[in-house]
# Entry
Amino acid sequence: MKAVWALTWTEMIRKRVTFMTLAMTALFGIAFWFISDAIIGDPDYREQDSLQSLLHQYTDGAMLLALGFFFGAFAVAFLAIFSSISAVTGEAEHGVLQSVLARPLPRWRWYLGRWLGFTVFGLLYAGLLYALIVLIVAYRTGVSLDGLTIFKSYLLFGSVVPLLVTVTMLGSIWLSPLGNGIGMTMLFAMSWLGGMIEKLLGSELLRNEAMRPLQTISGLISLAMPADALQQRMLAELLSLSDFQQLTNLNNHLGPFALASIPSDSFLIYAAAYTLVLMAAGIWAIRKRDF
# Structure
């Protein structure tokens, strides 16, 4: 399994996925630095030692974090999807899979090795991007977060990687790389659309009984692809929204990045179980598939 894992990383380096990912991340970091400067200007929070000033400082930091992770969610998701779209059929089309499976290697071990390769790579990238966004915001605004909050929110931020790799690899057992990539991108876009519907339903204009079917649709979308819901919970943990309820409604200051609804712990358990079930389905399917 370790050899398959190593070969997966070698394949990603050979295809220059790693190079392009790091180059685009560096470009994003530079752009985000100047964007944060344009949004908050150059306020000197240290000269205004009042509760109002502290809230203003934290609100600026929360806005920048929400903006940064809006991009970060797409970057991590697309890396997880497009690194694994050809995990099975792509290898079969080039004859690589047949030569590997001819050896005394159980198919489930090969499948799991590929999954670990893509997932660990995605988690490392998620950690790099997460640290970059948090450090830039901390430097620009002076907002510092405690270690437990950072750790919990990173786990939620990275939890999208195993979910998307699992679904994409399952699709790659039957679909061509192109078809699988289109399907997974559409599925992820639907998840984002479900989150947008939730936000619209939370507004005063659409808060009536006639819009109840939309709430059902957005809920079904979240169950089919929980990626956006996990992102919402990550931001809620990172910004400690519940801790600020007594002082101010921080969510109202996030503008277009405001959170519609915060998924419960039960939903997190569902997302983990959903990933495990699809993983088991992928292992079962790869054992039955005739190449």
